[in-house]
Specification:
Blueprint lengths: L4 H8 L5 E5 L10 E5 H10 L6 E5 L20 H12 E8 L1
Parallel strand pairs: 1-2, 3-4
């Protein structure tokens, strides 16, 4: 079971809005927390040309799994590096990425 502990910390520190990208389609009832399936979010961002929109990003227990096919994602030997490149494109200049 996934517990949004990173989101809870960000919420407690006053971060708004909070976007969570996951391979599940789980939802939480909180107006300040928006939950996206990773593919849905990326397709929307690419379609609407929304780049450099996040102030900061954090990843815990995810990057090392990308490309292994465990969550329905395609096999990709460099999936972890490709994901970091995508995240880099989504963070505003001088934004931080916590890994």
């Amino acid at each position: 079971t996934f517990t949004p502990w990173v989101e809870a910390i960000a919420y407690e520190l006053g971060t708004r809005p909070i976007y969570t990208l996951q391979y599940t389609r789980k939802k939480y009832a909180n107006k300040d927390l928006t939950w996206f399936h990773l593919r849905d979010y990326l397709e929307k961002a690419i379609e609407e040309k929304e780049f450099e929109i996040m102030d900061h990003a954090a990843s815990f227990h995810a990057i090392q799994h990308v490309g292994l096919g465990r969550f329905g994602d395609p096999l990709a030997p460099f999936g972890d590096l490709e994901t970091i490149q995508i995240i880099h494109c989504m963070i505003k200049p001088y934004g931080l990425f916590f890994l």
